[in-house]
Amino acid sequence: TRFCAVCSDYASGYHYGVWSCEGCKAFFKRSIQGHNDYMCPATNQCTIDRNRRKSCQACRLRKCYEVGMMKGGVRKDRSRVLRRDKRRPGTNDRDKASKDQDHKTAPLQDGRKRSSSTAGGKSSVTVMLPDQVLVLLQGAEPPILCSRQKLGEPYTEVTMMTLLTSMADRELVHMIAWAKKLPGFLQLSLHDQVQLLESSWLEVLMIGLIWRSIQCPGKLIFAQDLILDRNEGNCVEGMAEIFDMLLATASRFRTLKLNSEEFVCLKAIILLNSGSFSFCTGTMEPLHNTSAVQEMLETITDALIHHISQSGCPVQQQWRRQAQLLLLLSHIRHMSNKGMEH
Questions:
Q1: Domain shared by 162 and 57, yes or no
Q2: Within-domain flag for 263
Q3: CB 133 within 8 A of CB 300
Q4: Nearest-angstrom CA–CA distance, 90 and 304
Q5: Helix 290-309 and helix 260-273: axis angle, to 10°?
Q6: Which spans does this entry mark as compositional bias, Basic and acidic residues (predicted)?
Q7: Are residues 23 and 166 part of one domain?
Q8: Residue 289 falls within a domain, yes or no?
Q9: Mind listing the pLDDT tens digit for each residue in 232-271?
Q10: 10: nearest Cα among 50, 48, 47
Q11: Are residues 61 and 177 in the same domain?
Q12: Coil, strand or helix: which one is 85?
């Protein structure tokens, strides 16, 4: 007996590249053919099982992509049958359909093939369409935490640092879970996973903080119940400067009207691009498989460029926005260095 990879119900067959039930097969078919800009009413972490699969379309579609569903998915053990069928009459239509599908995904696949050939080995990253990447990235986002602080007590340098350090420790646990959901991350060696996280953790925390604070000018939202302004942060020596930099970057994000798709791409780029700086820091060892990390980085960058291209703006404005967003990452790295010094 086979079970559905999405909801664990009994599978009716091998559909879109995975074993799935009729319900999830039909849902995925509807999603890829028409309306699919679903929104999760909660935190993008809804449980999808036989009884609750209809409760959240956004999380159900994310689960479909996570388990490997894809348009035109072909079962791996059918490859010999397909090769044998090529020599039989009546396969021209199937060949034509396959070529049409290849043509639709050619730009992304070509990019992946070039990267793989430079590595001298087989690619470890599954070829995904930009929209699939965006769905996965948004679904991987961690929840906003609560600080569990004792309200009503004035902040001192000790209590403030203890509170922020405790929050950072808890966020790091969620950051590791987030990184594991990025396309291709679990295929990296443990060494490379650790190196990327160790070299970028503060930048990743900072861009998350800035994103949470984007709608609250003059405030930094560290947690649902921990919202601080510059004066409150001033109780820690040197913290006011970092607060000012964070608030200024949040203001810039607000001016650019950064959206969630752009944010999740920038956040992933920070993690993956940190491997490029191993030559200039004594704390980070060289990555074992730089080509695989570069391939992942290109996948995320492709998704960002694709999303911006859907805005309908003139091409020159699209290029300008790409540059504006990527330039912000240098400011976040600068803030991270300041934070490390502190």
A1: no
A2: yes
A3: yes
A4: 41
A5: 160
A6: 76-113
A7: no
A8: yes
A9: 888 877 788 899 999 999 999 999 999 999 999 999 999 9
A10: 50
A11: no
A12: helix
DSSP alpha helices (H): ranges in 88-236? 92-104, 106-119, 130-139, 157-180, 190-212, 230-233
Provide the b/e sequence for 248-287 (b: ≥16 CB within 10 Å). ebbebbeeeebeebbbbbbbbbbbbbbbeebeeeeebeeb
List the structure tokens of 6.
Answer: 């999405």
Element (H, E) at 15: strand 13-15
Beta bridge partners of 220: 228
Residue 82 lies in a domain: no
**Cα angle, residue 288 at apex, residues 285 and 291 outer, rounded to 5°:** 120
The region, left, alpha or beta by phi > 0 then psi within -120 to 50, assigned to residue 8 is left
Instruction: Render pLDDT for 197-219 as a digit per residue (tens, 0 to 9).
Output: 989 999 999 999 999 999 999 99
- In this structure, are 29 and 165 located in the same domain? no
Residue 29, domain CATH: 3.30.50.10
Domain count, the chain: 2
Q: Which residue has the tokens 């240098």?
A: 330
For residue 159, CA distances in Å to 67, 154, 163, 165, 230 come to: 44, 9, 6, 10, 16
Tokens of 302: 């492709």
Domain closes at, from 67, 83, 101: 67
pLDDT per position as a tens digit, 69-111 = 877 654 443 333 334 444 444 444 444 444 444 443 333 333 3
Q: Quote the CA–CA distance of 314 and 172 in Å, as a whole number.
A: 39
d(CA 187, CA 185): 5
Give the end of a domain, one of 22, 39, 67. Answer: 67
| Residue 99 falls inside a structural domain | no
The answer to whether 16 and 70 have CB atoms below 8 angstroms apart is yes
Query: Which among 244, 159, 172, 163 is positioned nearest to 205, based on CA atoms?
Result: 172
Type of residue at 172: L
Domain that holds residue 185: 130-341
Identify the CATH number of the domain in which residue 306 sits: 1.10.565.10
Buried b (16+ CB within 10 A) or exposed e, 11-49: beebbbbbbbbebbbebbeebbeeeeeeebeeebebebe
Beta pairing, strands 18-20 & 226-228: unpaired
